[in-house]
Write a structure and sequence with these properties.
heterodimer, A: mainly alpha, Helix Hairpins, elongated, B: mainly alpha, Four Helix Bundle (Hemerythrin (Met), subunit A), 0% strand
Amino acid sequence: MSIGLDQYLMLSAALFATGFFGVLLRKNTLVIYMCLELMLIASTLALVAFSKFNGTLDGNVFVFFILTIAAAEVAVGLALIVALFRRRHTIQVEELNQLKH
Amino acid sequence: MANFLFYTFALLTLASAVLVVMNKNAVNAALGLLLSLVGVAGLFVLLDAALLAFVLLLVYAGAVVALFLFIIMLLDTTPGAQKPFSRLTIAASAIGGALLLLGVLSLDERSVLPSLTAAHAIPTLKNYAEQLFTTYLLPVQLVGFMLLVAMLGVIVLSRKCTGEDEPKTEGQP
């Protein structure tokens, strides 16, 4: 049995689900951020697989853009987390409930 | 051989992704993310996208994970006592997981996916350059501009907070 598109899509879905459950379950903002990165990577894996199995390059070029955006997103997000930590001295999402009260 | 490589990289990717989610220590989670990225880069090579694998390792493993580790060690986040999940959360996540599994199974059962086309273009550096400088020229420019804006935003965000910025009414927990 050779590896087809559906194996890659299954792997991508599993990776995405892992990242998603990480976002839901974890309480540390940094770890939540890492799980977001996992979800992005899962989507790029699906794009590259589609690109290969359709014989076009568009998916691969798209992944270039996703990688660029992800790098910028990480920089901005980590700066936000550092600013948050400076002000509130915590990055646990349970303790960041200022909007509730 | 390709099958063996696929399953090896898939196992590496998924196992280290689970490590990211399950680990209590944030540093170990970052290292798990690194391993997972290495697995995905291997899969990219199997999908004839060696350049993308290279860029992935360069950008993610080189820059992003290093930045994560830097911030983790800067912030000194000791894991506090975690509140247990409520029963509603557990039920909702079980239903969500079941729905996801159902979706994947229906995809496996019903979908007609294209098999490998015979004459597919192997993505070379020349092909990438051609696409990026003809079809996708405007997005490339926009992404460059966005990187500039992101850089400015990070500089503004990481400025030292001055006294008048501090909210007066905020009660310290």
